[in-house]
Amino acid sequence: MTDETQSPMEKVADLGRDIGEYIRQQRSNAKISLRQLSKLAGVSNPYLSQIERGLRKPSAEILQQIAKGLRISAEALYVQAGILDLPTGGPVADAIRADEELNERQKQVLLDVYESFRKENATPRSAAPRSTVDKSDVDNRRPTEE
């Protein structure tokens, strides 16, 4: 069934499964057991298990706690859960997000640095700082004695 033919309830169920799979994948990548993550996130072991199996759709607050336990950005979980839209950024940002060898924190740091460079380079050339030397000072200088 495609997204267009799914009912709203089916779409919500899919989001629950997707976020659960994503959390399980991130937990596995971090080499943390379900029990350890439940302790780190401050949620019960059975509740976290239900989230991972797609039986429960966690609130934004619970996602934030899970993100903290996984040491990934809450934004990544919010996007996966459908709470936030996927950020834009073009092919470089997409490549960073798709790299499976980087963890979420590393991806976010790279995206932040990349975006700061893009913003810096987007400033108009006329706004670039000019020399602080006044031309009249240069013309009126005295020759130095040697």
From TrEMBL:
Record InterPro entries: Cro/C1-type_HTH, Lambda_DNA-bd_dom_sf, TransReg_Diox_bact_type
Key word DNA-binding present: yes
Protein name: Transcriptional regulator ClgR
Stretches assigned to the HTH cro/C1-type domain: 23-77
Record's keyword terms, sorted: DNA-binding
Biased composition (Basic and acidic residues): 132-146
Family annotation (Gene3D superfamilies): lambda repressor-like DNA-binding domains (1.10.260.40)
Originating organism: Kibdelosporangium persicum
SUPFAM superfamilies: lambda repressor-like DNA-binding domains (SSF47413)
